[in-house]
Amino acid sequence: MPHNLGHLPLLGSDGDMDVVDAIGGPKFARLRALLGRTRGSTEGHGTQDCKQKNRSHVVHLTCPTRPRRMRCGRMEANMNRRMAMVSGLRYGLVYLGLAIFAHMQVGCACAYSSEQATFMEVRQIQVAHQAGMGLDVEAVNGNLIVKRGGDAQVQIKAEFRCVTQERLAMLRVTADRREDGTLVVRSEWPEGRRSSEGCAFIITIPDAKGVKLASTNGGIIVEGLAGEAYLRTSNGGIDVTRHDGSIDAATKNGGIAVIGAAHPLQLQTSNGGIDVELTKAFAGEVDLKTSNGAVVIRGGQTMKYIDRKNTAARATINGGTTVSRMRTSNGGIVVTVGN
């Protein structure tokens, strides 16, 4: 993860009303691109000064107030783009918290624990690769990154935080295979894990067919794998790129970004935005709904709306019938259909 937290991104470039650029570009709020873009204030019809807090950080934002009634289709589209941009504010703030968390290498539980996990160590192990097998990994109080790479070995990098040097020395990483060939990666804590302790993983694997990844208080990044993907975290964003298979992803505090999706999706977050880029091979129905934000579907000559509202939309793409559902309670949803 990057270490320079001097300028964290919140919104897109000044005055840019393209809906994707307005909320962070084609790689919207990507976990690995958190620290590379400066943000400016937005412009809208009627503005009010808003404040949003992320722990001890106060971010001053200029947010559009309710606009006047639009008179033509283009102006209405601009309004929807502005609404989507405002909805993305919460998304950016959630990732701001995630970046600070990763940089400090301290879990959220530390604030409530009398024992601080100040002893840190990085360990690396290698496991012989078996092609076409699944991968099952659990991190805790830390990020989980899995990407495709290498040829004959699975590279596992573990980053530990413990409350004592003695506990750190006894901590183990296990990488074992089930009977079906699935590689299972875990951390084993001496006498149980303390609340402030944590373990993050960075894994490079030649390929994997079927991925089950879970974390608490950390983000998840998956790149270039295949098969069914089951992704869960409780405090952090989820970012998936070029995954050749269905995706079931859920988080309670963070955004979800999926790039290059060609298979069904089930995406849910309780406090963050959702940004999806579909390939031209995608065929199915998309069902989008948010309780506090806007939904936008962009592009695609074969896309046809079934139902459309400010906070919900259903559409078919390439005549497919399999339903992909995307839900959030606080944030916008943007789906871009490939041509």
Write the SSE topology.
Layout: H1 19-22, E1 47-54, E2 57-64, H2 73-104, E3 119-128, E4 135-138, E5 144-148, E6 153-162, H3 165-170, E7 172-177, E8 183-188, E9 198-205, E10 209-215, E11 220-223, E12 226-233, E13 238-241, E14 247-251, E15 256-261, E16 265-269, E17 274-278, E18 284-290, E19 295-298, E20 303-308, E21 312-317, E22 323-328, E23 333-337
Parallel strand pairs: 4-8, 4-10, 5-9, 5-11, 10-12, 11-13, 12-14, 13-15, 14-16, 15-17, 16-22, 17-23, 18-22, 19-23
Antiparallel strand pairs: 1-2, 3-6, 6-9, 7-8, 18-21, 20-21
Characterise the protein shown here:
This protein has 339 residues and is mainly β. Among the domains are: 86 residues, no CATH class; 107 residues, no CATH class. Helix content is 12%, strand content 42%. It has 3 helices and 23 strands. The chain has an 11-stranded mixed β-sheet, with no helix packed on it. A 10-stranded mixed β-sheet has the order 3-6-9-5-11-13-15-17-23-19. Strand 7 and strand 8 form a beta hairpin. The longest helix has 32 residues.
The proportion of strand residues reads 35-45%
Low-confidence stretches: 1-113
Shape type: globular
The ordered string of helix (H) and strand (E) elements is: HEEHEEEEHEEEEEEEEEEEEEEEEE
Question: Averaged pLDDT, please?
Answer: 75
Cα end-to-end separation: 33 Å
Strand order, largest beta sheet: 7-8-4-10-12-14-16-22-18-21-20
Number of helices, counting only DSSP H or I runs of 4 residues or more: 3
Helix content: 10-25%
